[in-house]
Amino acid sequence: MSTTCLNQANTSSEQVIRRLYQVTNAHNEGFEAQILALLQMGLERFNLDIAILSKIQGNDYVVQYCVTPEAVELKAGDRFTLDTTYCGITCEAQAPVALEYIGEHDMYARHPAYKAFGLESYIGMPIRLNGELYGTLNFSSPAPYPRHFQEIDIDAVQLMASWIEVELIRRQQEEQLNKLNQKLKRLANYDSLTEIPNRRGMYKKLKKSMNLLSRTGGEGTLAIVDIDHFKKLNDTYGHQLGDKALVETAKQISNSLRDYDFVARLGGEEFLIWLPNSNLNGCAKVFSRVMKAIGSIELTEDPITVSIGAYYLGFNESSLPSDFEMLADKMIAIADKALYEAKETGRNKVVTRSGSIEDFSL
Ligand SMILES: Nc1nc2c(ncn2[C@@H]2O[C@H](COP(=O)(O)OP(=O)(O)OP(=O)(O)O)[C@@H](O)[C@H]2O)c(=O)[nH]1
């Protein structure tokens, strides 16, 4: 290479690196904007018309991002058979492919992609994620390339592809981390067997709802639903059927409640129901609906019955104590006493108590 050519190449590669640095550091622009800027940069660098980041799915070539002239109708999500694209050649070669005048090429002039799209020039690079083929980064044009693609051109595409690879992996990891965090959050607040809130989740939901009621001076009922003779069910039919009964009971209770009520699993065969804005009459209807729904569970010959201890509470317009869990536990203890009475006096029934938030001398 002559000194002039070498200088030109150096200047050109410096420009590529500088632009690439600018684009890839513009994190606040967002991934999509960065990719589109990168594709645009490639088009300007090579003086080509169509830029695509594709994903390979089986034998399909799927456009993920593209920059095209207005006349070319191409958009994200467009799908082609891989064998009918030049990227099929790139993927097979597992290496960069640069073609300048395809119509005059011995081999590729007969390629189905040439017949289908009539693109004369193409430079493409496979994108690999964790050792697996992800897709391609490619630039092309219906016009023949006026010069030969050089090593510096391949290096430029390689550099862009490398950034895309790193960024896609980072996004993949971020997504996995988010999913894991969501799963952990769910595990912390939900019961894994019945998939309804656990005790911890219950405190959170109850606090939110009671806060609202205490601001408006409303009313609400907290009830504990306990399956009757559950030990016997377990002992007779096994733990697995016992678990099934718990899942079905949770489902039937959920289905019997209004949107703003909720059910949580307190532990074992004990569930908590919270019914905001419900007086004792309204609650009685809900409880009879719940008992009927649970009675319809068909797991054994004997229908499942439950006992319910309920505590109706009126709120004045005051704020809740900072130790909300202690207040909730006191309310649960009162409902528990009512439940105990229901068990002692024959089961399959509801016993209610009523009071006021002021009883707790907040
Ligand atoms: N299958 C299953 N059983 C559980 C689970 N958690 C607790 N249990 C069982 O539930 C049973 C509860 O028994 P008890 O507290 O005596 O209550 P009960 O037999 O329903 O009697 P009453 O409440 O008085 O009607 C125990 O045998 C526990 O082992 C669970 O997650 N799955």
From TrEMBL:
Catalytic reaction annotation:
2 GTP = 3',3'-c-di-GMP + 2 diphosphate
Which InterPro entries does the record cross-reference, listed alphabetically? Diguanylate_Cyclase (IPR050469), GAF (IPR003018), GAF-like_dom_sf (IPR029016), GGDEF_dom (IPR000160), Nucleotide_cyclase (IPR029787), Rev_trsase/Diguanyl_cyclase (IPR043128)
EC number annotated for this UniProt entry: 2.7.7.65
Q: Where is the GGDEF domain?
A: 218-355
Listed cofactors: Mg(2+)
**SMART domains associated with the record:** GAF, GGDEF
Per its UniProt record, what Pfam families does this chain match?
GAF, GGDEF
Q: Which Gene3D superfamilies match?
A: 3.30.450.40, 3.30.70.270
Annotated Gene Ontology MF terms?
Answer: diguanylate cyclase activity
PANTHER family xref list: DIGUANYLATE CYCLASE DGCM-RELATED, REGULATORY COMPONENTS OF SENSORY TRANSDUCTION SYSTEM
Name assigned to this protein: diguanylate cyclase
Q: Which organism is it from?
A: Agarivorans albus MKT 106
